[in-house]
Amino acid sequence: MLRYFIRRALALVPVFFIMTVIVFLLIRMVPGDPVDVMYGAEGLDPARRAALERSLGLDQPLVVQYFKWLGRALTGDLGRSYRAQMPVLDLILQRLPATLYLSLAALLFSVVLAIPLGIISAVKRNSWADLGAIGFAILGISLPQFWSGIMLVLVFAILLGWLPSIGYVPPQEGLGKFLRHIILPAITLGWSLAGTTTRLTRSSLLEELGKDYVRTARGMGLPERKVLWEHALRNALIPTVTMIGLQLAFLIGGAVVVETVFAWPGIGLLVVDSIFARDYPVVQGVILAVAVMVVLVNLVVDFVYTLIDPRIRLE
Length: 315
What we know:
This protein is an all-alpha fold. 77% of the residues lie in helices and 0% in strands. It has helices at residues 2-29, 34-39, 46-56, 62-74, 88-123, 128-142, 145-159, 175-209, 212-219, 224-253, 256-261, 267-276, 280-308. Helix 5 crosses helix 8. The mean pLDDT is 80.
């Protein structure tokens, strides 16, 4: 296991390096200047501009700026926000819990709904239940998140008045208020994942039910329930677990649209605001933090493989 972690860590070094270069260059290709955004392009004399650029480190060549930022990042220092005037790491840690709550709630919604739907759809193939599950999956995959989020707000917040439309309440300020605020964003974010997971569970289970070992188990007189739950389903869930792990990483880093629609103060909304403000250190720090979380999620998925299928080993 130790050798496995060492190999994974060494393989990820060039990936992280390339990712940091791309992020560093892309944010600087966005039109606009941080000094102009913060202090205005007009009425700023050249001496004052030069002093501001020097204080922010923007007067140095891009190569020098990159390696200075990378060197600090390797020690845990992600820089200082131009706009908020506070360490980027502290800013991320303030916003990260809201994104984690939303991502985990969306994942829970999708898994609890999608896996049973996928199983029912495969077992009841070509039935009305199968068609309903496929329809649910197609809608979740096809509908844009901003549109489905707005429709949910229109129905459940404006027309029915059951749930709040925007805002975030931490769970320590009241579990009931927290749950009421997170329901609509979690459904919006988790519906697309639920659609993908439903279709993948259905197709994987259908493939396993058609294999020889399933026919052999049935021929030996094993109950259909035991054939399904103890044999076919465990093998069918391996690609589903892969998809859930990858989608969790996407949920953590890609909840930008949902957080914007519902004014959810997570790292997705932080990135959007920072891009408009040309706050380079915040954008770079958030993307680097998300990349680290993606790697950790993939490692957890590898361990889950060994629990589902004992034949898989970390070798």
